[in-house]
Amino acid sequence: MTTGSLGLRSSGSYGSLQQQLFQNSSSPIQTTSPIPRKPPKLFKEKEGLFLWICKFAPRKNVGMLLLCVVSAAAFLWVLYVGKGEVAAEQSNRMFAPETVHKYIFSGIESIQKNNVGRSVSIVQPPPPPPPPPPLLPPVYFKGYTLPPGNPCEGFTLPPPPADKKRTGPRPCPVCYLPVEQAIALMSDAPSFSPGVSNLTYIHEENQSKADFGGSNFGGYPSLFQRIDSYDIRESMRVHCGFVRGVRPGHQTGFDIDDSDLLEMESCQGVVVASAIFGAFDLIRQPKNTSEYAKKNACFYMFVDEQTEAFLRNSSELNSSMRIGLWRIVVVHNLPYGDPRRNGKVPKLLLHRLFPNARYSLWIDGKLELVVDPYQILERFLWRKNASFAISRHYKRFDVFVEAEANKAAAKFDNASIDFQVEFYKKEGLAPYSRAKLPITSDVPEGCVIIREHIPISNLFTCLWFNEVDRFTPRDQISFAIVRDKIMSKTNWTVNMFLDCERRNFVIQGYHRDILGRLTPPRASILVHPPPPVILETRHTSPFVPTSTVITTPIKKIPTKRGRERKSKRHRKVIAGNRDPNFN
């Protein structure tokens, strides 16, 4: 209801209207001095009619006629005056202030009655929005302990079997939980990321080489940027490959078809990944994989165009782009000429290729996975409350010894290896000693990486890749310097488990070129890999949960005492007939 609808006027005119009403209340009939005007035409016609009536009507009836006319005029005049007074009085009462206010409030009440259930802004404004709820602290996974009585709780490694003829690395028993229990222990909350909570990546269209090392794919970070990348803080922006594009795998080098990229981005749980470049290895299918892992985990095998052609010629690959559990992803425009360096891209940068995955298990192309991935994650990550796990080297634990072994095996250019080691020496890298405990080794066996995709573990693999991009592709040499620099600024740790435990869930095969040099028949090839594993289920009581211990059978070698005695006698005879001139 507005003032216009009530017959009221605004501000100044409202006061003048009240003043006029007050004047009208004192003199209901307001008279003014007549102004002489020309009589209208209708009045002349009425006057002529009256004279005509008087002329023709009888004289005795004229008096009565006049009397009636006068009476009627008087009655009409009285009636008119009475109505005017009543109207004026009613007008005075209507426009009185108390009447106007009463009328306004009655109108508002009628609006309220007619708008029941609807919000009327004039009468009752809407209530203010409720305050936002207080922010709850983020929830993180903090690990767990196995229930008492679980066989894996106090599991210890048995002593290695006494086999003098086998001195190399071998697998050892590992206590895994059943697949169903391992899956149930997978937490919805991520692990805490100490030191850094927001990690973004540098994108450079125009690159300029400032210092030594680097590439168009990984960028050319200066030595100052390298130092700054080890200054751990809550929000960081670092080089991490794919610097020439916003979307990794799309016009960045290491290019992948858009259809494959969409599928990779949709992987939100566990990803198992491997790669074969240069047709260097044969594809090996995972074994002992649960139905849950087949449906929910993502299995990706990255290959180059050369490997794709080899797979198609051998009739292993068809239009479905799947070989068993593996989804084959063809990579175009490889960033490096060395297949070993190209393999470091998916090995260390899986969090960039699978931005929505929570966990990843990387295995080299020469390995065969023989344990369910959820059991591996439970055993080496969740049970240890770790976000990164890698096995130690089976023999070497010192970076300097590892560098010399790489030079002796001609793994890379010796001068480049020496330059890298000397550079790390100047930064404080020292030979391994017991003073580094609880760190048990500086040299990993990098063919398997188990990790959770959180900012701190992503930062570690980014900086590790930057070292591989700047120096040699021998990632065992650069592992310790990156780990130690991050651990000096945070309480983050790496779970470095035994190499024999790694050999329990992956079986190492031969490269394709070695297989081609082996003598036929091909059935003899199956003898060379480590013996297959067997599953033993231990039941302590019907109330204690079971666990799976994977062991390697040890075949007892029969002794041949007769031959040994004969050989000893033969050696004695030879010793008796020894030529004195022989040195």
Automatic annotation (TrEMBL):
Keywords: Membrane, Transmembrane, Transmembrane helix
Keyword Transmembrane helix found: yes
Transmembrane portions of the chain: 62-82
Keyword Transmembrane: yes
Basic residues biased stretches: 560-573
Residue stretches making up the TOD1/MUCI70 glycosyltransferase-like domain: 199-511
SUPFAM superfamilies: Formin homology 2 domain (FH2 domain) (SSF101447)
Signal peptide segment: none
Annotated region described as Disordered, given as residue ranges: 560-583
PANTHER family in alphabetical order: ALKALINE CERAMIDASE-RELATED, F3H9.11 PROTEIN
Protein name: TOD1/MUCI70 glycosyltransferase-like domain-containing protein
Gene: LOC101259611
